[in-house]
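hey can u check if this looks right to u? its 255 residues, i copy pasted from the old doc so theres a chance i mangled smth
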Amino acid sequence: MSFSVMGNEPGSKRIKASLFVTCLVDLFFPQVGESVVRVLRRLGVDVDFPNEQTCCGQPAFNSGYTDDARALAERFVGVFSGDSRDTYIVSPSGSCASMVKVFYEELFKNDPALCDALSKVSSRVYEFSSFLTDVLGVEDVGASYDGVVTYHDSCHLLRELGISEAPRRLIKSVSGVKFIEAEMHDECCGFGGTFSVKHPEVSVSMLDEKLTHIGKSGADTLVSTDMGCLMQIGGAVSRRELPIRVMHLAELLAS
């Protein structure tokens, strides 16, 4: 199967991307990062991985440790400023991408030089599904999967970045997939980083509601774009031995 990717036609300049991998993917779900690279390379994108990258600072920021978050944010900007201006920065996480694109401005608001450096970096940051549909201009990436799939909207991807349709278009374009929209698909799963630790009873109640609607949908596979959500939902699915497979969008598209 051949693919027509905008910017990768014969004689044109190849599209380049740096993988912004996120902590959860790096430490617990490396197969998701590998799937992102596999999909991008299948589409003709030149992918690299800046080894100097660390946490984007979101856990510290959400917990009120702004000085620690700012230090990590400065490091992120420094690391990815080394990329050429025509290199995109792609992340398999709406929450981490929104940290850079939305919340770094608050951390740097009193430093004009850092704000200027940030603008040059954040404009190149894309969440994975948005990069595929909005930059590469593709929906069918040549994937196939035999299953009934439903989708969970992660909070930051939907509410901070306003991305809803891109993941759905990509899922529906996978050969063999039957897509079903679950009720309350855009409600929080209850993870919220440290929220699930600080407020476990509320978190579990939200998770129970989410699992009920996933079960009622009749889907055998749950797909999302943030490993925090998938870790929360997948952990409960595993403990309760529910007949649902949980995976990141990149894993589905790499199949």
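The beta strands are 16-19, 46-48, 87-91, 125-127, 144-151, 175-179, 221-224, 245-248.
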